[in-house]
Each structure stands twice: as structure tokens, then as C-alpha cells.
Design a protein that fits this description.
Elements: H1 2-15, H2 17-39, H3 43-62, H4 67-89, H5 95-120, H6 122-131, H7 133-162, H8 170-197, H9 199-207
Length: 210
């Protein structure tokens, strides 16, 4: 069973190498742009964000963390992205918007990590590792996978309209497309649980040293 899944995943990646290349490219561009933007903040913007960061650490250090609220917000944010990509995938004009969404996810990560590192140096690197990395080990690959699926499905719709001699069972393909995305959201849910119940533990522990 595991071997069959591995073979299916490898076959999928091999069949969509160019799509993965462009999705990863936009994600990396987003990270780079976010990191650059964190360094290009004005003095006023820097002070505002530093003040917010200090308030955050003081709240975390003095109050109990509402893990369930974090989980709800994380699920909302990540499911919203996944659903938007799913919807864009069933349109023939959704490809650039999917790439922009993936780039935006990279931008947010790049900006956040860049700001932490800029303001706290090595402590910022450590804080990023424990607060951002754990959940994104699951969420980022899952989101990229959904993005590739959305683009692939959109390309299939375009081919079905332009190649009249080639038959596509759109209904079956749509069902498969939707089912796979739903299954991938299980992985995203696990990532959200990590963000809500594991990362805050390390954040609270480290907040006393920040």
C-alpha cells in the first residue's frame, strides 16, 4: 500500500515537473520579496512592529495561550487558501491567480522570518525555527501540492476545449481533483494542530529569553 502511494506520488511529480518548477519559483520569489520588504521598512514602521512584538511577548509570558482560538484562526486561514485555489482550478483563467496566492504565502513567511532575524539576530532565527517552521513543514508542501493540482486541472480544462479529438471525462476528473484536495486538507489540519498546540508551547518557553 505504501509502495503504491509512493509510486503514485513519484508519477505525479514526474508528470508535472514544469508546474512544480513554476509554483516553487513563485513561492521562492515570494519569500525573497518578503525578506527584502522586512529590511526596507521605514523607521516608523519598524518601531510600530517592534512595539507590537514586545506586547506579544509580554502577553504570551503573562497569560495562558488560547490554543483553540489559534486553531480556529489557522484552520480558517489555510482552508480559505486551499478552497480559493480549488475554485480557481476549475476556471481557465485561474492559473496566474494560483501562482500569486502561492507567492503571497511565501511573502508572508519571508517577511515574518526576515523581520525576526533583523530585530533579534540569532534569537530571531531560533524563534522562527520553533514558531514558524514546525507547522509549515506540513502546511507549505500541502499548499504547494494543492496549487499544482489546481493548475494541472485548469490546464486539463484548456486542453479539453482546444483538442476536440481528445476526450476528457470532466466529471470524473473533477471528482478526483476535489477528492485529492480534500484529503490533502487533512495534512493541513495536522499542521494547524501543530501551530495551535505545539508551537505555542515553545513560543511561551522562549518568550522569557526574548
Amino acid at each position: 500500500m505504501i509502495r503504491r502511494i509512493n509510486d503514485t506520488v513519484i508519477k505525479h511529480i514526474q508528470g508535472n515537473l514544469m508546474t512544480y518548477f513554476f509554483v516553487l519559483l513563485f513561492f521562492m520569489i515570494g519569500i525573497s520579496a518578503g525578506a527584502f520588504m522586512s529590511k526596507a521598512l521605514t523607521e516608523t514602521e519598524n518601531k510600530e512592529l517592534i512595539g507590537y512584538l514586545r506586547d506579544f511577548f509580554s502577553i504570551v509570558d503573562s497569560k495562558a495561550i488560547d490554543n483553540f482560538s489559534i486553531l480556529k484562526q489557522s484552520l480558517l486561514n489555510n482552508f480559505q487558501t486551499g478552497i480559493i485555489i480549488w475554485v480557481l482550478g476549475v476556471t481557465v483563467i485561474g492559473i496566474p491567480f494560483i501562482l500569486l496566492l502561492i507567492g503571497l504565502r511565501g511573502f508572508i513567511i519571508g517577511f515574518t522570518v526576515g523581520f525576526f532575524v533583523k530585530q533579534m539576530g540569532l534569537k530571531g532565527v531560533i524563534f522562527s525555527l520553533v514558531s514558524i517552521l514546525p507547522q509549515n513543514i506540513l502546511i507549505v508542501p500541502a499548499t504547494i501540492f494543492i496549487g499544482v493540482l489546481g493548475i494541472s486541472f485548469s490546464l486539463m480544462l484548456i486542453r479539453s476545449k482546444t483538442r476536440k479529438n481528445k476526450q476528457y471525462n470532466i466529471v470524473n476528473q473533477f471528482f478526483l481533483y476535489s477528492t485529492v484536495i480534500a484529503v490533502v486538507h487533512i495534512v493541513i489540519t495536522v499542521g494547524c494542530l501543530v501551530e495551535a498546540y505545539i508551537s505555542p508551547f515553545f513560543i511561551k518557553y522562549l518568550s522569557t529569553y526574548m
